[in-house]
Design brief:
Layout (H helix, E strand, L loop, with lengths): L7 H11 L5 H6 L5 E8 L3 E2 L3 H10 L3 E5 L5 E2 L4 E8 H35 L4 E4 L8 H10 L3 E2 L8 E3 L1 H4 L8 H11 L5 E5 L2 H9 L4 E5 L3 H14 L4 E5 L7 H5 L5 E4 L10 E6 L1
Parallel strand pairs: 6-7, 6-12, 8-9, 9-10, 10-11, 11-12
Antiparallel strand pairs: 1-5, 1-13, 2-4, 3-5
Helix pairs in contact: 1-3, 1-4, 3-4, 4-5
Length: 282
């Protein structure tokens, strides 16, 4: 999968957050002009993300990148994944901004990759997608990271997809109008899939009967979900089914075994950053 790169304005922002008025310590020590190198090395099995952006941070600070492994590659412990040469001033200026970006993005990518490997072992055809619940201000990093790990976004935002929630239905005139509502949505937006979320079996069956394209079943325990999936498949053979709510690395395989087509999750956005070592020396 070809991964996008963050724009230059984000690279500038990352640097400015850490270096708004220069590096006081390096300046006072008088070592800024001395030449050296920096090496980033994995301390654990890691699916990399944002190595390209980390390299650009170092370059923008004045260093020259000498080695870089691309986002989406999984490396074992002890592998040098990024290195650069330059003045001590440039290396120290880019060090932490590059490291923080690498560790947080690679943490998301690694968690994503782990879940995908576990669910694909159960169902090779299942798809993993992630919600729009990334921490505000980090979406571009988070989406690149989940894609590096092998997933795709469920929704990038409210503007590009149709997902009917029970909270929408609360403003409409009852569930008896649901077939009419779904038909209207399809007529108004014929290029879009219509997804609708159900919070119980009755809602799920009603949505399927109303000919939504995808029924998204929220917060069902796996054992109950398996029974509902069987019922939906029997009555509505063409329906696509997604499971959402509380899916994580520990239970994803159980959800994959229910027979759903899609797992929708947010858990990969939150957790321990990857552990990446840095050495800086003349």
């Amino acid at each position: 999968m070809q991964l996008y790169q963050l724009p230059d304005r984000d690279i500038e922002r990352f640097i400015e957050e850490d270096l708004p008025y220069g590096d006081l310590t390096t300046s006072l020590l008088g070592i800024g002009a001395r030449q050296g190198k920096i090496i980033f090395t994995s301390r654990e099995t890691t699916t990399l993300c944002c190595t390209e952006e980390a390299a650009r941070i170092l370059e923008r600070c004045g260093a020259s990148v000498t080695c870089m492994i691309a986002s989406g590659i999984t490396v074992e412990s002890g592998v040098p994944l990024l290195s650069a040469a330059g003045s001590a001033g440039s290396l120290h200026a880019g060090w932490k901004a590059a490291l923080n970006l690498l560790e947080y993005a690679s943490g998301i990518a690694t968690r994503t990759s782990t879940i995908i490997s576990r669910v694909k072992a159960i169902n090779p055809d299942i798809k993993v997608v992630t919600t729009r619940k990334s921490f505000p201000g980090t979406k571009k990093i988070a989406i690149k990271a989940i894609m590096a790990g092998g997933a795709l976004p469920h929704r990038l935002g409210l503007s590009e997809s149709i997902l009917l929630f029970p909270q929408h239905m609360a403003f409409l005139d009852g569930s008896d109008r649901l077939p009419e509502i779904i038909a209207s949505l399809k007529a108004e937006s014929p290029e879009q899939k219509i997804i609708a979320e159900a919070e119980n079996s009755t809602e799920a069956l009603l949505l399927a009967k109303s000919e939504v394209d995808i029924v998204q079943i929220d917060k069902f325990p796996p054992e109950e979900l398996r029974s509902l999936v069987h019922q939906l498949r029997t009555q509505f053979p063409g329906i696509k089914i997604s499971a959402a709510g509380g899916i994580n690395a520990e239970n994803a395989a159980l959800y994959a075994a229910t027979g759903v087509d899609i797992l929708v999750l947010s858990s990969v956005y939150f957790g321990k950053p990857s552990d990446i070592a840095v050495s800086i020396h003349p």
